Amino acid sequence: MDKCRINIVFTEPSDIVFEGISNLLLKSESHYYIFRVKDLDELTQFCIRENPDIVIINPAAIQNRISDFIRLKKSFSHISWIGLIYSFFDNVMINRFTSIINITDTAEMVAEKISSTLEKCNCSSQEQDELSERETDVLVLLVKGLSNKEIADKLNISVHTVITHRKNIVEKTGIKSLPGLTIYAISKKITPLTL
After folding, report:
1. pLDDT-derived band of residue 91, with 50, 70 and 90 as boundaries?
2. Domain over 129-187 is classified CATH 1.10.287.3510
3. Rounded distance between C-alpha atoms, residue 127 and residue 45, angstroms
4. What would the CATH number be for the domain defined by 6-116?
5. Phi, psi of 51 (to 5 degrees)
6. Where in the chain is CATH 3.40.50.2300?
């Protein structure tokens, strides 16, 4: 794994909250790769498979499974566990996390809380995998809503090649969802805000 790559996994049921914070992180110059899981069971499997650096989790996801969460934290003690708070939780619950992000925090506060849980990266942002010209073309057409077949026809390549480019895009950005890729494309100025 790239030493500069910072894998962040969210356990958050709200699409709006997830997409909003993801957008804030992707606008930064850091090497964040963002993933999303639906619950504690999926988070456990993700931690085993991917070994993330940071978990941002809504405490409601662990409220009735505290002992499972504690076991998970002990198994992956190197992970920074950040609580995402937008409703009331008592101090016992809040103290289970390395840090807390409040829904009312500014973008700068969120970035600072995340970066403060990690060691600083000494590489330049140019070392991060950049999308090739063809991958960028595929991403632009994906964001416009075209299917693999339509993209293949438009770029005069095979559907198999489109799928390969899509896999490369996911690998390089760490983003699997179309909304996440859309935010990435807009934040990196690959596509305009309005299409």
Report:
1. confident
2. no
3. 29
4. 3.40.50.2300
5. 50, 65
6. 6-116
